[in-house]
Amino acid sequence: MTERVVLAFSGGLDTSVAIPFLAEKMNAEVIAVAVDLGQGGEDMKAIRERALDCGAVESVVVDAREEFAADFCVPALQANALYMDRYPLLSSLSRPLIVKHLVTAAKQLGGTIVSHGCTGKGNDQVRFEAGLAALAPELKVVAPARDFAWTRDKAIEYAERRGLPIETTKKNPFSIDQNLWGRAIETGFLEDIWNAPSEDVYAYTADPAVPREPDEVVITFERGVPVKLDGRPLTPYEIIDELNRRAGAHGVGRIDMVEDRLVGIKSREVYEAPGAITLITAHLELESVTVERDLARFKRGVDQRWSELVYDGLWYSPLKRGLDALIADAQRYVSGDIRMTLHGGRATVTGRRSEQSLYDFSLATYDTGDSFDQSLAKGFVQLFSLPSKIAAARDAKQG
């Protein structure tokens, strides 16, 4: 029986070359699956036709923009997900959704093998294969770049020899991954970590140093989900998309970092995520107003662990599923409005209001009308500091 390979297809050089290569190498039929995650750029119909022109027996294009926003970006927002306190997981979030649609295509079209274009040095191979192991462990996996020592030079030579309908020049030195939640840029001169990014590296964000008028925006949340911009009801996809434009126009969301990869190496990464950084900043502020102190403290550790699990490719793991439940419960009262100013590369909170607010003006004020009984504080401080006082006395006794 002829094997059928379901290929995660981006339309670029590597995955386009993978279609005829896998067909020859494995004597298999290749099914290309392209998933629209709001990455923009080339028309998805053109990508579908390219897969067929390269030899795919089936070419599937999935519009997953709303699904990605609601089911992947929103949970990341509710977890305030920033790997190493900086990276908003834009590539990490997309892989489990792509895997989900690869498995669906395999079941519908008789696929027995799944293939991706990841190398053996990156995190994405883990994200794809850990997801597949959880959703469809019966499927085999082939990664041409890793399993057959496939290099970019070999891919270009192969494409030119076969006359494949794709761009094969080296004019773009960067490796780029982008979707609705942001854009990742690596390799090229960025691999020297002393080199500063040039302005042409960026596409989602304008130079924040250029003078321009600030933009004020009010973001409305219901139970941790963004539902309105400036009073206009919108879907999460529409909100992220608009904030990418508005915050991006002010250079919000540029990140330049050396990142700890799962495979054990450090990698220089440049990201731009204007919508994600704006929303996470707003959501954190609303949580500070509506989430009780001990839950907020505990959730910060949960958020960090959630981010690490997703970064490591464990979206479908039992622990991540358990943390999802706690995070969802913590969103019960995270409803209200956050006002922000977008300007000079920053999204700055200038106002917050919520019917679920735990902020009590009469307790917080230092002016007339203060309802806080300060006479209770003296005994509280004495009892609170008693363990440290006793330990200090013991230490003094021991010299």
Automatic annotation (TrEMBL):
Q: What is this enzyme's EC?
A: 6.3.4.5
Which residues are involved in binding L-citrulline? 87, 92, 123, 127, 175, 259, 271
Q: Where is the Arginosuccinate synthase-like N-terminal domain?
A: 4-165
Q: Name one Pfam family in it.
A: Arginosuc_syn_C
Q: What class of enzyme is it?
A: ligase
Q: Which UniProt keyword terms apply here?
A: Amino-acid biosynthesis, Arginine biosynthesis, ATP-binding, Cytoplasm, Ligase, Nucleotide-binding
> Which residues participate in L-aspartate binding?
119, 123-124
Gene Ontology molecular function, alphabetical: argininosuccinate synthase activity
Q: Which SUPFAM superfamilies match?
A: Adenine nucleotide alpha hydrolases-like, Argininosuccinate synthetase, C-terminal domain
Q: Which reaction does it catalyse?
A: L-citrulline + L-aspartate + ATP = 2-(N(omega)-L-arginino)succinate + AMP + diphosphate + H(+)
Is Ligase included in the keywords of this UniProt record? yes
Residues that, per the record, bind ATP: 8-16, 117
Q: Which HAMAP family match?
A: Arg_succ_synth_type1 (MF_00005)
Q: How does it assemble?
A: Homotetramer.
Q: What is the name listed in the Swiss-Prot or TrEMBL entry for this protein?
A: Argininosuccinate synthase
